[in-house]
């Protein structure tokens, strides 16, 4: 099998890790946070735009307080809704159809089996928005290859949804070259026509600036770190274990928990959490891997924290407290967690709801309870966390689209961005009442038909400001938001927060080797000297030049976000 | 094997030709053990997969992975996969593409293999080289996509057949078998005035039933399990073949298939159980096709022709 | 075939050209020999040969056209190996070729100066030899064993069972192996119960290449027997009977009747396998890369994937692909020559 003919999805890389957790997130009705992943490079439109010059490009922010959240956003958290759904009290976010019946084609990634084009859900939404959408739902796991091919052809769909983790290689330059500048339709007060889009926070909109023009309609997300260390609260309580408060405590506890005879291990792979515990820059996106040390820019791999985090993770592996399947990157880590094979694991914050909901009514572990532990500083003090990205998926419109098509697409996005607690939001996330869902005791439950038709297509065209709502498990929603708020207090924004930076192509793949190296190092397959060698290679092969580029092109022009 | 190890007389299979000496006990035992070990080595994992696909979600949860001993049986995973129009619709597409594709590929390949099978025929070496070169150089995704698009094949079933219709490997295998047929037979027919097409149809093909069965199977399996072309060329969900519909469920280590995630989330189903059910479904066509192919492997089927 | 058997012999006819008329029965084989020799000596002009073989050439036409359109035309795209190609700078990927800068052999230099490339190259070759020695003979042995089974039921059943693993996906095969031989697998658990700790075959870089070869044997060896069975089916039982009458025992019959029947197929598959030496598995290796580290598991195809394709570096991927193709062609020519030396046909005749 040649690489060309094979599956992108089989690569157990960060990209797939992120993509998979993210789509699980989208699947969960309600908050649909997305993750950050590698940014990319381009030859055209290098650089970024922020500050004053960005202001001119951005839509004027006009929050809509249609429904007041039960827990308002604080420290960058999502807003939380913990109430029940009352159909007759739903507000209206789009009082009149903005669509004029134009035929549009939208290509978007899709995880799962897409419904038919003429299904009741798509038909109802076309009717409600007044836009005649034809969907091209493409397999999300191989989406990168598909957009690579489509962008190189001369027939691009009217609207293209692109997740951030597909921005590798030359895709950003393609978006700059082939996608429409939305400025004339949205900048400043133009956006008023689309009030739900105007309510998307400016942070998120700023991420939609590609090549100096506003091109992407963002899906907003909380910038609080999205990877949470989870533990089995039920078992902790039963055994009287204390939630660890330092790196040493974590290791000691994991050792205590591990019983190879019983096939139970302390934890799964904790690399992503270790970066947060040791205050290393996350590097989920390249530009977010830089910080200012005095007035010198430092990249994450150059920091002591980076090596310390990796050393600690390596210690966990060496101590034998990590499940062997995690070492071999095999199987499903969340299944190991819910089945009690590992006591602690890290995953996207949305897993809190996803796994809890999944385990409701479990016969084998009826008392299942999980929780995210607060990220601790490695020495037991406060953690030092870095902000993630405020948006990481965009909908683009092709450059030569006629005005009517553009306006209809914006109308569709405006509908999809309707805030929680509105009829439109219920329509997008649950479909038509009766046909696709019913409400029992204030909890919407999808019908068989809803399960097959109402999936993740429409919800990707844009989103409201980040929120979390689980009417069936309001206490989980509350805990998630509160965790984000507690962690948010420790978050610093790195200098290039919120920017979509297109690096020069000669540096594009410079840092790509580190992820593999990290995984090899923590598992004992590479030595510390290999990592150090790679770091000095990185500097000499262009890292230092890249640093100068960031300083000159981004920092001096736009200033720092931190 | 205990039965076959009893008296020598029982060892004599009725099908054994009279001239063949009866096997030694040691030989027979060794052979039996060898085959049994091989088959068990295959069957045990298969067993685990089947059991997991039939296990209720709670059993999978407590096993934390594949289930070895069944504790309760449910068909809910299969019901879930086969209900709804999607899978059956996609199965029709796959059957159609596999059927027409295999016929087309076989026609093209048999003609080419025969055309190249005569030593010393005009240009056969150059043609052979030209064919073989394609085995070693592959074009990138973008040029291939642009070509298919330029030909107007995107979003048509032809895009699932034409680009991958010819396998040079299969042509070479066919050709090698054709060349091993005694030239005596074809030459005499030629002298009788038979044209090439007639020789191919009346002499070569009947004599090559075994290899034709094998190569048809190769093509059919390739069409049936292909998904990459559909992923790249097909935009319309109704035209997606089965593999693309099912692949979502098995390909990932992490994450849930969203289409079913609502029911997985509500604890009705287990993602792993569903994935294993998909694996089992993928084996069904093979289990069905296998006897048809084996039918052509019977020894001595060629005697009549050669003697005649 | 009944048709063949029943057709009454006709008087020898001619089919034009210069082919001499020959009595039918005994000279047939010699006829074709002579024709070939004549062709080599050039006693037949190319026109005559073209006219004589035009039907044969016409028969290859559909395949040639398909390959021309769907393989050769897009292959032209490989010129981007000499460029720093950006498919997106023009209206489409083809016009982009004319607008991308030419960099001559820069991509190739980058490749040959990359130690990771050479690491992958070495792993590929080692893995190829291990596969050649440990994997390649297995289907042949299996086919011989199955072929020697007399009882039709046992035969059919064991064949059907052995085919099945081919249809498992690699993800599943690796998962099954992990659950058997992994650190928390079945065997590790049993050993743990007996006080032996630390069994884990899946994350041991030292035996990794043998591990993936065993996975490959498990998955594909059974499927591999099918071509050999087809070859065995075309052996006439009369040959066995005659050989037995001459006093040849079981082993001698296998040596003198069975193996000669398999030899052309074995030679063909061997030559093709050698030509494809640099392809040693992709998805399987990618899936298990993190378990043992890139040092032990990176092969050319995964290297191209990681360095070229995943990053959208089409030029680099094309360059590695070209090098791989050139090496493949050289290998297949060499292997074919070698087959000729051993008196085999190989893929094509001299």
TrEMBL record, chain A:
<feature type="signal peptide">
    <location>
        <begin position="1"/>
        <end position="24"/>
    </location>
</feature>
<dbReference type="Pfam" id="PF13416">
    <property type="entry name" value="SBP_bac_8"/>
</dbReference>
<dbReference type="InterPro" id="IPR006059">
    <property type="entry name" value="SBP"/>
</dbReference>
<keyword id="KW-0732">Signal</keyword>
<dbReference type="GO" id="GO:0030313">
    <property type="term" value="C:cell envelope"/>
</dbReference>
<protein>
    <submittedName>
        <fullName>Extracellular solute-binding protein</fullName>
    </submittedName>
</protein>
<keyword id="KW-0813">Transport</keyword>
<dbReference type="InterPro" id="IPR050490">
    <property type="entry name" value="Bact_solute-bd_prot1"/>
</dbReference>
<comment type="similarity">
    <text>Belongs to the bacterial solute-binding protein 1 family.</text>
</comment>
<dbReference type="InterPro" id="IPR006311">
    <property type="entry name" value="TAT_signal"/>
</dbReference>
Automatic annotation (TrEMBL), chain B:
<dbReference type="InterPro" id="IPR035906">
    <property type="entry name" value="MetI-like_sf"/>
</dbReference>
<feature type="domain" description="ABC transmembrane type-1">
    <location>
        <begin position="91"/>
        <end position="287"/>
    </location>
</feature>
<keyword id="KW-1003">Cell membrane</keyword>
<dbReference type="GO" id="GO:0055085">
    <property type="term" value="P:transmembrane transport"/>
</dbReference>
<feature type="transmembrane region" description="Helical">
    <location>
        <begin position="32"/>
        <end position="52"/>
    </location>
</feature>
<feature type="transmembrane region" description="Helical">
    <location>
        <begin position="126"/>
        <end position="148"/>
    </location>
</feature>
<protein>
    <submittedName>
        <fullName>Carbohydrate ABC transporter permease</fullName>
    </submittedName>
</protein>
<feature type="transmembrane region" description="Helical">
    <location>
        <begin position="160"/>
        <end position="178"/>
    </location>
</feature>
<dbReference type="InterPro" id="IPR000515">
    <property type="entry name" value="MetI-like"/>
</dbReference>
<keyword id="KW-0813">Transport</keyword>
<keyword id="KW-0812">Transmembrane</keyword>
<feature type="transmembrane region" description="Helical">
    <location>
        <begin position="90"/>
        <end position="114"/>
    </location>
</feature>
<keyword id="KW-1133">Transmembrane helix</keyword>
<dbReference type="GO" id="GO:0005886">
    <property type="term" value="C:plasma membrane"/>
</dbReference>
<feature type="transmembrane region" description="Helical">
    <location>
        <begin position="272"/>
        <end position="293"/>
    </location>
</feature>
TrEMBL record, chain C:
<keyword id="KW-0472">Membrane</keyword>
<keyword id="KW-1003">Cell membrane</keyword>
<feature type="domain" description="ABC transmembrane type-1">
    <location>
        <begin position="121"/>
        <end position="335"/>
    </location>
</feature>
<dbReference type="GO" id="GO:0005886">
    <property type="term" value="C:plasma membrane"/>
</dbReference>
<comment type="similarity">
    <text>Belongs to the binding-protein-dependent transport system permease family.</text>
</comment>
<keyword id="KW-0813">Transport</keyword>
<dbReference type="InterPro" id="IPR050809">
    <property type="entry name" value="UgpAE/MalFG_permease"/>
</dbReference>
<feature type="transmembrane region" description="Helical">
    <location>
        <begin position="261"/>
        <end position="282"/>
    </location>
</feature>
<dbReference type="InterPro" id="IPR000515">
    <property type="entry name" value="MetI-like"/>
</dbReference>
<dbReference type="Pfam" id="PF00528">
    <property type="entry name" value="BPD_transp_1"/>
</dbReference>
<feature type="transmembrane region" description="Helical">
    <location>
        <begin position="314"/>
        <end position="335"/>
    </location>
</feature>
<feature type="transmembrane region" description="Helical">
    <location>
        <begin position="221"/>
        <end position="240"/>
    </location>
</feature>
<feature type="transmembrane region" description="Helical">
    <location>
        <begin position="125"/>
        <end position="146"/>
    </location>
</feature>
<keyword id="KW-0812">Transmembrane</keyword>
<feature type="transmembrane region" description="Helical">
    <location>
        <begin position="56"/>
        <end position="75"/>
    </location>
</feature>
